[in-house]
């Protein structure tokens, strides 16, 4: 099969959109030249095997440029749905940090290059390991390949159903974060209440000096106890959001 430059550029655009936001692929730790080389190699390889369907033939340079922009948007949407899981888990860690007293202790997140609190970084690191263990990065590449069977070039559908689903996924991010953080937050708040009663009954005790390390100890203990449960929940979340990706592709198809 001869190499088709037009198909290569179309696939390159959709993969580029994926690499802008998808977990692992969008990591700041990966040098830009290496990332560009991977995108080009993937696009060149897939252009030989992936049949591309056209809803509207891009017969002019302007129309072809519009097609590439739309392809970037499609890849970005697929990657965004996967990123929401990691965003929710990181937000849950930040909620834990605020209650445990780690809110001002920031470390650099290797994924985004920004500073996030300790527990947010720790929970995200666990989530990334599980994401790799369940072959989430392979699933995203497979979703890109399968998307050409559902969404032809210049044939993306953007109706109310798609917007409602994206809104539902975004809201679900905050719901997941609160549910994940709730056990540890409740335990730490209960410790705060207990220390308040102690301060009233034993005013000689310096509650601030005792309470801060105690809250950290309680939070870390609860995290240690709940870690197997969190790993199980993270597995379920990733597979649920893989199903969301399938729904997004179906809604964007014609």
Plain-language structure description:
With 254 residues, the chain is mainly alpha-helical. It has one domain. The chain is built from seven helices and two strands; from the N terminus they run H-H-H-E-E-H-H-H-H. A two-stranded antiparallel sheet has the order 1-2. The mean pLDDT is 82.
Count up the helices.
7
Uncertain regions spanning at least 5 consecutive residues: none
Q: What is the overall shape?
A: elongated
Calculate the mean pLDDT score and round it: 82
Number of strands: 2
Count of spatially separate domains: 1
Summarize the amount of helix as a percent range: over 70%
Q: Between the first and last Cα atoms, what is the distance in angstroms?
A: 28 Å
Main sheet record: 2 strands, antiparallel
Round the Cα radius of gyration to an integer and report it: 23 Å
Strand order of the largest sheet: 1-2
- Strand percentage, roughly? under 5%
Order of helices and strands: HHHEEHHHH
Q: Which structural class matches the secondary elements? A: mainly alpha
Summarize this structure briefly.
The chain is mainly alpha-helical.
Layout of helices and strands:
Blueprint: H1 5-21, H2 32-49, H3 61-100, E1 106-108, E2 115-117, H4 118-133, H5 136-150, H6 160-201, H7 207-252
Helix pairs in contact: 1-2, 1-3, 3-4, 3-6, 3-7, 4-7, 5-7, 6-7
């Amino acid at each position: 099969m001869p190499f088709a430059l037009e198909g290569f550029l179309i696939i390159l655009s959709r993969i580029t959109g994926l690499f802008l936001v998808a977990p692992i692929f969008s990591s700041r730790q990966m040098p830009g030249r290496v990332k560009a080389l991977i995108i080009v190699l993937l696009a060149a390889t897939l252009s030989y095997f992936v049949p591309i369907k056209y809803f509207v033939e891009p017969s002019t340079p302007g129309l072809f440029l519009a097609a590439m922009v739309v392809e970037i948007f499609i890849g970005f949407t697929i990657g965004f749905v996967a990123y929401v899981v990691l965003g929710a888990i990181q937000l849950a860690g930040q909620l834990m940090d605020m209650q445990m007293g780690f809110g001002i202790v920031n470390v650099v997140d290797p994924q985004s290059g920004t500073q996030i609190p300790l527990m947010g970084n720790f929970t995200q690191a666990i989530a990334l390991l599980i994401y790799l263990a369940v072959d989430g990065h392979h699933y995203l590449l497979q979703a890109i390949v399968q998307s050409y069977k559902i969404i032809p070039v210049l044939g993306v559908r953007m109706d109310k159903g798609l917007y409602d689903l994206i809104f539902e996924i975004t809201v679900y991010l905050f719901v997941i974060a609160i549910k994940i953080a709730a056990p540890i937050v409740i335990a730490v708040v209960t410790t705060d209440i207990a220390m308040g009663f102690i301060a009233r009954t034993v005013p000689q005790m310096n509650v601030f000096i005792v309470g801060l390390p105690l809250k950290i100890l309680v939070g870390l203990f609860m995290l240690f106890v709940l870690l197997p449960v969190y790993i199980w929940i993270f597995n379920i979340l990733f597979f649920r959001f893989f199903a969301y990706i399938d729904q997004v592709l179906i809604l964007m198809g014609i």
